[in-house]
Structure to design on (115 residues):
């Protein structure tokens, strides 16, 4: 039995986007002292919103771009404090999406079992 509907597809896509953002932040932190490294930025929320409105939440463009923020003398523009805050925010959003999936499964179980 496949449990997949528009809500689950949207939540799954959101997790994919959040995972890409987490990976970018981890790369940025790992390269905070690398000369010439510019921070990666991940955007998918607008694309996900548009895809949901069209009824196809899997058709999402997860874009990874380089930050245009000013660089330090070594050409690096990673702001470690912003990256740490971003990682925390991404983790909280991830928990929220997982809780949304868990709620969906609880509703499904309740409808099957009847309790």
């Amino acid at each position: 039995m496949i449990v997949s509907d528009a809500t689950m597809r949207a939540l799954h896509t959101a997790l994919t986007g959040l995972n890409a953002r987490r990976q970018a932040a981890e790369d940025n932190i790992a390269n905070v002292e690398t000369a010439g490294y510019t921070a990666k930025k991940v955007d998918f929320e607008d694309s996900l919103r548009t895809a949901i409105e069209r009824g196809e939440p899997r058709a999402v463009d997860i874009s990874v771009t380089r930050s245009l923020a000013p660089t330090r003398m070594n050409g690096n523009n990673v702001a470690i404090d912003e990256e740490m805050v971003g990682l925390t925010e991404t983790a909280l959003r991830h928990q929220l999406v997982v809780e949304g999936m868990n709620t969906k499964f609880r509703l499904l179980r309740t409808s099957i079992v009847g309790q």
